[in-house]
Amino acid sequence: MEPVNSLVQIKGIRDGLLATFVEAAWEDQCSALITQIDERSAFFHGARLALDVGSQVLKVNDLVVLRDRLSERSVTLWAVLGESAVTEHTSQLLGLATRISKPRPEEQQHAAEAAGDTALFVTKTLRSGKRIEFPGNVVVLGDVNAGAEIIADGHVVVWGRVRGMIHAGAKGDRSAVICALDLSATQLRIADEVSAVLEPQKNPRPEVASINEEGFLQSELWRAG
């Protein structure tokens, strides 16, 4: 039997998260998914999840049991993609989507170039105690309050005010950047470089933090283009 983490891959999509299974017994696939969710419960809390089950032939009870296990963990199952007509019919009976919107090839290529293949979109303010970890880029449409944390392997963009801690390029990517409309964070980190505590600004302006040519973390006004 393969290690559970090799049975399912999870990435961010426009409408939430997509879990893609490799070929294995349905019980093993479900266990792999639940294990990943339990290991990162804070990240998955409140998530909308779509499944790509490949050629699995699934009956109503198969999906009901998994849907209930996900619901217990505050994860909403909203779509099931598969090659089997039986699986598609089962999903439709349960009110689940069987198609998801996908970008055109040129859009997909641009997204991969600009976002390092995967990005997580958060459409709410992160309050104190909230921690997000993601193996890609993170985009927040809201504020990051004091006591909240974002740890991303790629870039972090906040369309709002930052008062918490942000760590971009967490796996050592020194080209990662942190952008925000108001960058007054408790702490900023890019790769292994750490900033001093930033004081709140009286007249905040959009800024981008990056590692300069001398190897120091700096911030400057965020200019489009």
| Strand neighbour order, sheet with most strands | 5-7-9-11-14-15
Which of globular, elongated, flat, extended, rod-shaped describes the shape? elongated
Unreliable residue runs: 103-116
Tell me the major beta sheet. 6 strands, mixed
N-to-C CA distance = 50 Å
The assigned CATH architecture of the largest domain is 3 Solenoid
Q: Any idea how many domains?
A: 2
Could you walk me through the main structural features you see in this protein, from its secondary elements to its overall organization?
The chain is built from five helices and 15 strands. With 225 residues, the protein is an alpha/beta fold. The protein has two domains: 90 residues, Transcription Regulator spoIIAA; 116 residues, Pectate Lyase C-like (3 Solenoid). It has a six-stranded mixed β-sheet, with no helix packed on it. A five-stranded mixed β-sheet has the order 6-8-10-12-13, with no helix packed on it. Strand 12 and strand 13 form a beta hairpin.
